[in-house]
Design a protein that fits this description.
Number of helices: 2
Shape: globular
Oligomer: single chain
Order of helices and strands: EEEEEEHEEEEHEEE
Radius of gyration: 16 Å
Helix content: 10-25%
């Protein structure tokens, strides 16, 4: 079972997540794929996981990680937040915290080089717990990235076009994405 797009294919050997895109003003927002746990919560804890995959043009050897890090840092610092620098054990991961209407929020960012001229940015949004990081790293290892037939603009957020082979269900302002070989009823 897999979900396929113009940029990646996810092999869903361990299908513990639900994937979806948002519908904004009647159009599918195709720059982000969100994911949540199917059971919504982390084991016995009442913690909701929400994450998002985005893709940015540029390779690590071109300095794309530094650009992503500096952009997130500027965004977080603009709301008086704090961004932790990556450490030697996890050089392409960093966390951020800031105050919002809901109180203190923490986000966690993982940036992966795809080897195809673009980077994948995984953002864990407020509500994640430390064990989620390892789970999402395992999920990201199930991605197979695709070569593009064009050179993306450096720093550009790339559109994600889900294959028509996948099954879709519209629920409110969300398009749920199901694996292509998932039997619908």
């Amino acid at each position: 079972m897999s979900i396929e797009s113009n940029l990646f294919e996810i092999d869903l050997k361990n299908d513990d997540f639900t994937y979806y895109c948002d519908v904004v003003a009647g159009e599918v927002e195709n720059y982000s794929v969100y994911f949540t746990r199917k059971n919504q919560f982390h084991f016995s804890e009442s913690v909701f996981l929400l994450g998002v995959f985005t893709f940015v043009g540029g390779a690590f050897e071109e300095g794309i990680f530094d650009l992503i890090y500096q952009a997130k840092k500027a965004e977080i610092e603009s709301v008086a937040g704090f961004v932790q620098e990556p450490d030697d054990d996890s050089p392409y991961e960093f966390s951020a915290s800031f105050n919002s209407e809901r109180g203190l929020e923490g986000h966690y960012f993982i940036v992966r080089d795809t080897g195809c001229g673009y980077a994948m940015v995984i953002s864990l949004l407020a509500g994640f717990v430390d064990s989620d990081i390892e789970e999402v790293l395992q999920l990201s290892s199930q991605f197979r990235f695709k070569n593009l037939d064009f050179i993306p603009t450096y720093g550009e957020i790339l559109p994600i076009l889900i294959s028509s082979e996948s099954n879709y269900s519209k629920v409110g302002n969300r398009i749920l994405i199901a694996p292509s070989d998932f039997a619908t009823s």
